[in-house]
Specification:
The protein has 19 helices and 2 strands. It is mainly alpha-helical. α13 runs antiparallel to α16 and α13 packs across α19.
Length: about 500
């Protein structure tokens, strides 16, 4: 089942390339493949709606692959990866629908890269062999390079090169660290392996652990991204087509945070414990710095991009504090951020298609022209600021409450950063939806059926998690109990 979930989109990508002469058929085929993948993952989700016993995996696959290096084709699905894979499948479908009219050149090639990226992200969330994880990690870079570079906006080449340079730097560091860990474990035990399960708990010297952990952490920090290695993201978001921004914000950033949770902290507990003050500090700096920069933006897409960095800063704080409450909040916030920020990028893209501008000074009075669009815009904006009853509130309150027990100062400062978020999001709503409508907007049409079909699932997810987060948190309970207790249980001050 896990292999099918990963490689079904890749098979669709090959088919899309074969249908490059038939854009309509290519779109329909790609949508059918993405929907089939979503249906498979959704069936797993509903089958797993129960509290997971500590340490349990819902599905495991393990096969010999490269025997000479003891590399195995090893996949695993627990509650954490299930939620992220479900988010990947959903955003994959929505990205195809968003691009239905926006992408009208090289349609087959575009869907090839889009579905290939979906396969790569699925692999990152499911791989339990570090070599296999690294291959899927690298697979993400190539499709995004072409999506931004071919179908992006005016400064797409600059943004693409910047994205690739940052990504390659992090990947090379991770490769060196990965090989070092493989060699150290083999020399110490006589058994060379890339298995996450066998490498977890392996004792190393303090120096070796700190160096390898630092390399892993920097690679993951670039992808999250955290201050000061975040500068590639606003440019990539600004120049990417709407589907590219959705994949970037909703999925690629989550691979970095997921890797910290799944690999960096469990594999290197002593170095992770030593890094906690640093991670809390960069999380707080990113939260305030990105919020302050977002407040100064006039480009709506760039504003949402900086807000994305700020929200990821809060997730880093939740992971750094490392108790079951904050980690649950951080994982839930990863899902929430993927839903809300993707929706905001989609809405900005829809507005850009109608007005041919993303400049806030050119907006105003949209509510009187497009009331249904405006209602969705307001809902997702309120979700972004953590309004009680909506999804982001649950994740944020878990992070703040869990952090306050052991790091009260950091929790109070983080709350102040969320107040800054409130200010710039309300400014975005005020200048976009209200005020005097511009005369050239008089003929703008409201949402089409396709556009409503894109936004309704995201809105339902916002409301469902906001009002009834219990099933999602139940899925996280067992895996997080197991991960937090592996080697770093001493970091959890809460029962």
């Amino acid at each position: 089942m896990l292999t099918v979930i990963i490689f079904l989109p890749f098979a669709g990508a090959i088919a899309a390339l074969a249908l490059w002469r038939e854009p309509k058929m290519c779109r329909r085929m790609s949508l059918c493949v993405a929907l089939a993948d979503l249906l498979l993952v959704t069936s797993l989700f509903f089958a797993a709606l129960r509290p997971c016993p500590a340490g349990s995996w819902l599905l495991l696959e393990d096969h010999s692959w490269i025997e000479s290096l003891n590399v195995r084709y090893s996949l695993g699905l627990d509650g954490i990866s299930l939620l992220l894979v479900l988010l990947t499948a959903l955003l994959g479908v929505l990205s195809i629908l968003v691009s239905w009219k926006q992408i009208d050149e090289k349609v087959g090639l575009f869907h090839f890269f889009l579905l290939s990226m979906q396969a790569g992200v699925m692999g990152v969330f499911l791989a339990t062999d570090l070599f296999l994880f690294y291959l899927f990690w690298e697979l993400q870079i190539i499709p995004m390079f072409f999506i931004i570079g071919i179908w992006g906006h005016a400064e797409r080449i600059f943004a693409t090169v910047k994205f690739v340079m940052f990504s390659i730097a992090g990947s090379l560091l991770m490769l060196v660290a990965l090989v070092s860990l493989y060699i150290l474990h083999g020399q110490a035990t006589g058994h060379y392996t890339f298995s996450l399960f066998m490498l977890t708990g392996f004792p190393m010297s303090k120096t070796a652990e700190l160096l390898i952990f630092s390399a892993f952490l920097l690679a993951f920090a670039i992808k999250i991204p955290v201050f000061p290695v975040h500068t590639w993201l606003p440019d990539a978001h600004t120049e990417a087509p709407t589907a590219g921004s959705v994949i970037l914000a909703g999925l690629l950033l989550k691979t970095g945070a997921y890797a910290v949770l799944r690999f960096a902290f469990p594999l290197f507990p002593n170095a992770a414990f030593a890094s906690v003050p640093f991670l809390i500090a960069v999380g707080l700096i990113g939260l305030f710095y990105a919020s302050w920069i977002a407040f100064a933006q006039r480009d709506m897409k760039r504003l949402v991009a900086y807000s994305s960095i700020a929200h990821m800063g809060l997730i880093v704080i939740g992971l750094a504090v490392w108790n079951r409450i904050t980690v649950s909040g951080a994982v839930l916030q990863m899902i929430n951020h993927g839903i809300t920020t993707s929706a905001l990028f989609i809405l900005v893209g829809m507005l850009d298609e109608r007005t041919r501008t993303r400049d806030l000074s050119e907006m105003g009075g949209i509510w009187t022209r497009m009331p249904i669009f405006s209602a969705f815009f307001l809902l997702f904006a309120m979700s972004s600021i953590g309004l009680p009853g909506l999804n982001n509130f649950i994740g944020e309150i878990l992070i703040l409450a869990g952090a306050f027990a052991t790091h009260p100062g950091a929790a109070v400062i983080a709350f102040g950063g969320m107040v800054v978020t409130l200010v710039y999001i309300l400014r975005l709503v005020q200048e976009t939806l209200y005020g005097v409508p511009r005369r050239e907007f008089a003929e703008m049409c409201d949402l089409s059926g396709r556009e409503a079909a894109i936004l309704v699932p995201l809105a339902l997810a916002v409301l469902a998690i906001g009002f009834y987060p219990g099933p999602v948190l139940d899925l996280l309970q067992g895996p997080i109990h197991s991960i937090v207790g592996v080697g770093v249980g001493r970091m959890a001050a809460l029962p």
